[in-house]
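Allow me, if you will, to draw on your knowledge of protein folds for a short while. I have a record of one protein: its chain in single-letter code and its fold written as discrete structure tokens. The full record is reproduced below for your convenience:
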Amino acid sequence: MLVSTFAWAAPLKGMSLNGATGLISIPTGRIGWERSADIGIDLGYHAIVDEETVHIPKASISLFKIAELGFAYDTQDDSDNADTILHGKIQLPIKGSSAVAIGGNHQMLQTAGNDTDLTQIYLAATYPGEFFRMPAETTVVVGKSFGDEAPDDAIDFGMGFDLLLFPDIFQGFVHWINDFANFSYSADAYGADANFRGVFNSGIRIDLASIPAFSKFKFALDAIMTDALDDNRAFSLGVTFGAPLG
């Protein structure tokens, strides 16, 4: 019961691959420092490893416990293909432990030096529950993408699951994170292409802020398999560090 209460009071808010507070490919209804700081900053980095290694540094700022703004820089395989992703979300005033946010991102994509843009808007809802007596959060995302790289009629849809794995054994450190979506972290994603039939991503997120000395900060490590059920699978390692500023 104590573990469950702690999980809902302070859910682990890591960064998705495109920088928004979220799971792997999808954002959640949460922002980086909701209910805990008027201003908070998160810095993150993910590497996606396949035939090449792609580096994605990112940063975001949370404002007044209701809004989040940030960016990610996706190096791809060379500077002619590097992409920049700007993101933002506003959390709706929902009472209780659930969270709903309206958000979007603007992707400035490059292919062989040619520029193209894509904009995605979405509604994300995250709500707590239990799975075999282990605290969990489920996220549902519905949205729409606009631009040359976006499907004409398709609605963006994703579901995700964050499970606090065996808290009595791992002492609240280990989260199992999963998401499935018909969109990737960007329209020019590396290692996981959701354009044809969607992708399933799965991995472990380790919450080092469970250590008392780090409890005022955010410190998470990710080990992820993207597109885990396909031959197009790749691996990702990442880290998120955050601190309240006011």
User: Anything to note?
Assistant: The longest helix spans residues 2-9. Confidence is low (pLDDT under 50) at residues 1-9. The longest strand covers residues 114-131. The radius of gyration is 17 Å.
